[in-house]
């Protein structure tokens, strides 16, 4: 095979000015970035196909092995509904809590001139890379009945967090909030801060500017972050089982139920997984369309 | 503070927001604005550029800050608007000190009676034009219905009544400029700041919007500071021009004066004049290059010589005759300039000449052509340096 970009000695030829990227380009055609039908190099195509198969096949497997005939019956089981309801409620609450605290964090990271912002950012995003189980242990040490804050809570109010539904929300928030923070911070950085200057010259103070200008401008970023955050919270397993336990009705969310079912009733696990997959896909497509029509 | 013309506005509303939108029509802006002057003398460090300015603008007057990109013009506006804190000096509007670096005092931007039009207008994309215009009134706690009504009045005044519900994204450049203008003026500010108000417009719209802007500025009773890099805009809008170069005002005065007698190379080039420094010796000026220029008015000592490009005539061979300056020259570059061709000439006296396209073609000129340049003595402006 001869490579037209190499001379006979294998020395790279200086690229001809008009088609060095090695794609066919009709004269007067669209610029290369918009043109469809660019030839994909084999070295990229092959791994891409394998990678896509790797990502898609497990989902296909789930569909193939699903007990379709008794699906409705299985879904009608009260444990399934219970786990699903708990999952949806806790994930939504965790998302709301993440927004209440995460958006201000993102603003501080993107807009303020606080010293040590990069350290702050690193700290805030630790839960992204921290194994969730470790997060659960850490939460336990702080909020558990003998924990640093938990002991005080118990002594003062006689109230213990672990193994409650609140603990599920806390565990999910801990793991999912960084997704929202990162997403909103990115949106804030991309938004033109001069709109905020304009608002200031129109008499809007800091809070008013944030509420009336910044927030609407980054709303799509917040929506994206909230969806990511919600999806992550919905799938949370490690921190939840460590900090909140696995009690049907109060702390047993869908992922926990799937794991438990896999031990003694694999078909039930498949059904539950299918439900989670459907919920994930539905959210994704639903919001995708909304975003697309918006922009 | 002069209250004379603000009698019609209710005292409880900030900056004299009119009671009803109906009364806005056919009203001049000065019914609401207090007539106060701006006095600003401050220094601020922007990156490596130290900026130091001293400006005063009387109410009803328009000061245009003219200068090249990066000269610090916009920084001046940001300080005046309160978006940037000066390192030293004071900004005083009427008897209100907006900035006082020595006293560590700064009125935040949202508490200043200042309206600003930004370079690319920065209309809030998520709000309709009427809500954009009403924004400033809403910030100042004017009830929603009243703010909207006032905003509608303003949109009508700038000829955009039918665009109330339009989003800024659907407006043309000229329309956006007018909305931005209405948005800045709706709160009846005492100081109006315009950052390159015409730079974002195409050539045709620009003419139209410039004329309109002039009308608005003539109606506006407060002090106005405009930033521009375009000398034509500056001349058209200004009562007074201050030329900023390298963070300093190098020349200020009436636009005609600045145009006729530039003090720096930059100003001269901007206006299209050739500016030469020399020493007056009666009706001759000896240039630093050694060449001399014959002038009509006698002068002595350090002087500037300014020559308009239209005053330069070009001949293929050395001409003889009436008392005038004749220099050999070489065409360095030629660019279309309006209906003429503007030629930069190299030689003992560097010149800029405007030729008609016909003359340019008939002479068979091209970069490198050797020519003779002549200027009549009475066409040369000479003034002290």
Structure description:
The complex is a heterodimer of chains A (295) and B (385). Chain A is mainly α. Chain A has one domain (79-294): MetI-like (MetI-like fold), CATH 1.10.3720. In chain A, 69% of the residues lie in helices and 0% in strands. Chain A is built from 13 helices and no strands. Chain A has helices spanning 42-65, 71-75, 78-111, 117-129, 132-143, 150-157, 165-190, 194-201, 206-217, 219-234, 238-243, 254-264, 266-294. The radius of gyration of chain A is 25 Å and the shape is globular. Chain B has 385 residues and is of the alpha+beta class. Chain B folds into 2 domains: 14-260, P-loop containing nucleotide triphosphate hydrolases (Rossmann fold); 272-384, OB fold (Dihydrolipoamide Acetyltransferase, E2P). Chain B has 9 helices and 19 strands. Chain B has helices at 73-81, 129-139, 144-157, 173-185, 203-219, 231-237, 255-260, 265-271, 357-362, and strands at 38-46, 49-57, 62-66, 88-93, 96-100, 105-106, 114-117, 191-195, 223-228, 240-245, 248-253, 274-287, 292-307, 313-315, 324-337, 340-346, 351-356, 370-376, 380-384. In chain B, strand 1 (38-46) and strand 2 form a beta hairpin. Chain B is elongated, with a radius of gyration of 25 Å. Chain B starts with 37 loop residues before the first strand and ends with a strand. The A-B interface holds A 192, 194-195, 197-205, 208-209, 212-213, 216-217, 219 and B 14, 78, 81-83, 108-112, 114-116, 118, 122, 124-127, 135-136, 138-140, 183-184, 187, 193.
């Amino acid at each position: 095979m001869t490579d037209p970009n190499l001379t006979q000695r294998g020395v790279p030829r200086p690229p001809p000015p008009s088609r060095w990227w090695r794609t066919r380009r009709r004269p007067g055609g669209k610029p290369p970035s918009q043109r469809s039908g660019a030839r994909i190099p084999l070295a990229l195509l092959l791994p891409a196909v394998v990678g896509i198969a790797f990502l898609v096949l497990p989902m296909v497997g789930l569909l193939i092995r699903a007990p379709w005939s008794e699906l409705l019956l299985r879904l009608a089981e009260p444990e399934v509904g219970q786990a699903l309801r708990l999952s949806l409620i806790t994930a939504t609450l965790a998302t709301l809590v993440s927004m209440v605290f995460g958006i201000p964090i993102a603003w501080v990271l993107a807009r303020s001139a606080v010293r040590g912002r990069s350290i702050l950012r690193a700290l805030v995003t630790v839960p992204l890379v921290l194994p969730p189980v470790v997060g659960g242990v850490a939460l336990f040490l702080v909020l558990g009945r003998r924990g640093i804050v938990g002991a005080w809570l118990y002594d003062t109010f006689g109230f213990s967090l672990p193994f409650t539904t609140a603990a599920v929300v806390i565990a999910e928030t801990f793991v999912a909030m960084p997704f929202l923070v990162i997403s909103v911070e990115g949106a804030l950085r991309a938004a033109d801060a001069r709109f905020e200057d304009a608002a200031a010259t129109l008499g809007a103070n800091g809070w008013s500017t944030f509420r009336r200008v910044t927030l609407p401008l980054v709303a799509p970023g917040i929506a994206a972050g909230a969806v990511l955050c919600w999806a992550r919270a919905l799938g949370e397993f490690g921190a939840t089982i460590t900090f909140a336990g696995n009690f049907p009705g109060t702390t047993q969310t869908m992922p926990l139920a799937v794991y438990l079912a896999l031990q003694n009733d694999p078909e039930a696990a498949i059904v539950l997984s299918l439900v989670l997959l459907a919920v994930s896909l539905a959210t994704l497509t639903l919001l995708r369309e909304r975003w697309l029509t918006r922009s | 503070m002069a209250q004379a013309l603000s009698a019609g506005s209710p005292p409880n509303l900030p900056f004299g927001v009119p009671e009803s939108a109906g009364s806005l029509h056919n009203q001049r802006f000065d019914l609401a604005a207090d007539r106060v002057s701006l006095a600003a003398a401050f220094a601020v460090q922007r990156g490596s550029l130290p900026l130091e300015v001293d400006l005063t603008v009387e109410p009803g007057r328009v000061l245009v800050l003219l200068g090249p990109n990066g000269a610090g013009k916009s920084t001046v506006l940001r300080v005046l608007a309160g978006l940037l804190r000066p390192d030293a000096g004071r900004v005083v509007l009427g008897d209100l000190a907006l900035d006082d670096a020595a006293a560590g005092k700064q009125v935040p931007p949202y508490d200043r009676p200042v309206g600003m039009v930004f370079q690319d207008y920065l209309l809030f994309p998520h709000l309709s034009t009427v809500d954009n215009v009403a924004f400033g009134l809403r910030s100042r706690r004017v009830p929603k219905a009243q703010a909207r009504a006032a905003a509608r009045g303003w949109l009508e005044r700038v000829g955009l009544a039918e665009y109330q519900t339009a989003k800024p994204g659907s407006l043309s450049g000229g329309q956006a400029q007018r909305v931005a203008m209405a948005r800045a003026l709706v709160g009846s500010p005492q100081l109006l700041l315009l950052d390159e108000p015409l730079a974002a417009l195409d050539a045709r719209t620009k003419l139209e919007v410039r004329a309109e802007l002039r009308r608005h500025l003539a109606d506006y009773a407060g002090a106005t500071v405009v930033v521009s890099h375009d000398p034509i805009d500056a001349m058209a809008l200004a009562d007074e021009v201050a030329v900023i170069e390298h963070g300093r005002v190098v020349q200020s005065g009436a636009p005609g004066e600045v145009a006729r007698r530039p003090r720096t190379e930059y100003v001269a080039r901007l206006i299209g004049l050739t500016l030469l420094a020399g020493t007056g010796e009666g009706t001759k000026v000896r240039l630093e290059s050694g060449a001399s220029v014959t002038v009509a008015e006698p002068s002595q000592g350090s002087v500037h010589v300014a020559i308009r490009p239209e005053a330069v005539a070009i001949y293929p061979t050395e001409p003889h005759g009436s008392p005038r300056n004749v220099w050999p020259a070489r065409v360095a570059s030629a660019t279309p300039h309006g209906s003429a061709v503007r030629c930069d000439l190299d030689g003992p006296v560097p010149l800029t000449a405007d030729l008609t396209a016909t003359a340019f073609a008939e002479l068979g000129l091209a970069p490198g052509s050797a020519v003779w340049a002549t200027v009549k003595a009475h066409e040369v402006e000479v003034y002290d340096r």
